């Protein structure tokens, strides 16, 4: 897994979930990974979750890389600028991978109601947290890649362009905008040999999702009785391995501007989830969920 030895990555929103999974897998591939977020051992973000950027950085180092935690609120331009200047100084201007995974919108999303009944302040806050922060971070970080004429920007989203309406106007707008953000960045970056893609996981077994079902990663299958769809879920390591595969692809420019998914990339690159399987949420969603079929109680 040392294919990215010497590479430098920045994983924003790396405190937990997909961000943590990506950071750790980049570390396993040998990269130096700057992990940003707002929750530290000294203070928590409004998400009020126990996971911290220090823990993620330690997991990166334990996996074989070098983890560097930096507390950053990516809605604060000065903090983002300081972060990028720190990377420039410490890594001799090198930044190979930027992962924009800032989100924090789950507690703000209101489901099963028309948009005019959704709290407007929370909806607009979602746009600022999960779109504006990505733009701000890329604006400061992209010049490091442009100067070296190489690099990869990954915009983490939920779903693909043909996924249909996501059940809430603000949630739908955020996730669709992030996909378009990758495509737009790709056009501007293409002449400089820098790629940008959008990437979605499937049904992600994040820390919050495991807590929701009252299980841990060790006994996660116990939750299938509550939700048979959960049988087709995946760990955060799966999307992490997808990012590693993309970052190590010498022909990555052939993919720039695309919206990609873990299940498709797993088949193309041959990586697996931690249990050796290749969860295919996309096929399951099309063939069972959208088809209105009733899954078996065991998740089959």
Protein model, in words:
With 300 residues, the chain is of the alpha/beta class. It has a single domain (2-221, 235-277), classed as NAD(P)-binding Rossmann-like Domain (Rossmann fold, 3-Layer(aba) Sandwich), CATH 3.40.50. Helix content is 41%, strand content 12%. It has helices at 17-28, 53-63, 77-90, 120-148, 169-189, 207-213, 236-247, 262-269, 281-289; strands at residues 8-12, 32-37, 66-71, 97-100, 151-156, 194-200, 259-261. Strands 3-2-1-4-5-6-7 form a seven-stranded parallel β-sheet, with helices on both faces. It starts with 7 loop residues before the first strand and ends in an 11-residue tail after the last helix. The mean pLDDT is 95.
What is the share of helical residues?
40-55%
CATH topology term: Rossmann fold
Distance from N terminus to C terminus (CA atoms, Å) equals: 32 Å
CATH class assignment? Alpha Beta
How are the strands of the largest sheet arranged?
3-2-1-4-5-6-7
- Work out the number of β strands: 7
CATH superfamily: NAD(P)-binding Rossmann-like Domain
Quote the beta fraction. 5-15%
Quick take:
This protein has 300 residues and is α/β, with parallel strands linked by helices. The protein contains nine helices and seven strands; from the N terminus they run βαβαβαβαβαβααβαα. The protein has a seven-stranded parallel sheet, with helices on both faces.
Core attributes:
seven-stranded parallel sheet; 9 helices; oxidoreductase; Rossmann fold; 300 residues; 3-oxoacyl-[acyl-carrier-protein] reductase (NADPH) activity; 3-oxoacyl-(Acyl-carrier protein) reductase; 12% strand; single chain; EC 1.1.1.100; alpha/beta; NAD(P)-bd_dom_sf
């Amino acid at each position: 897994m040392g294919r990215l030895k010497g590479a430098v990555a920045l994983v924003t929103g790396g405190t937990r979930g997909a961000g943590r999974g990506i950071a750790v897998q980049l570390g396993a591939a040998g990269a130096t990974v700057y992990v940003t977020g707002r929750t530290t051992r000294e203070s928590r973000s409004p998400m009020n979750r126990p996971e911290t950027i220090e823990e993620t950085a330690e997991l990166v180092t334990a996996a074989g890389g070098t983890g560097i935690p930096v507390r950053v609120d990516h809605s604060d331009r000065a903090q983002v600028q300081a972060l990028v200047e720190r990377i420039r100084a410490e890594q001799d201007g090198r930044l190979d991978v930027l992962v924009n995974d800032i989100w924090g919108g789950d507690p703000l999303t209101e489901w099963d109601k028309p948009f005019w009944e959704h709290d407007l302040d929370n909806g607009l806050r979602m746009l600022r947290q999960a779109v504006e922060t990505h733009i701000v971070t890329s604006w400061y970080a992209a010049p490091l890649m442009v100067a070296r004429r190489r690099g990869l920007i990954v915009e983490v989203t939920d779903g693909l362009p043909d996924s249909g309406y996501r059940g809430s106007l603000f949630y739908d707008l955020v996730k669709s905008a992030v996909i378009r953000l990758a495509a737009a960045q790709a056009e501007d970056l293409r002449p400089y040999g820098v790629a940008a893609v959008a990437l979605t996981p499937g049904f992600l077994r994040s820390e919050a999702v495991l807590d929701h079902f009252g299980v841990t990663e060790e006994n996660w299958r116990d939750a299938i009785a509550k939700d048979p769809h959960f049988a087709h879920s995946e760990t955060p390591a799966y999307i992490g391995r997808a990012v590693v595969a993309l970052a190590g692809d010498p022909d990555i420019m052939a993919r720039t501007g695309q919206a990609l998914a873990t299940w498709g990339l797993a088949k193309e690159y041959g990586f697996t989830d931690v249990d050796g399987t290749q969860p295919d949420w996309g096929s399951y969603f099309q063939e069972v969920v959208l088809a209105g079929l009733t899954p078996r109680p065991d998740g089959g």
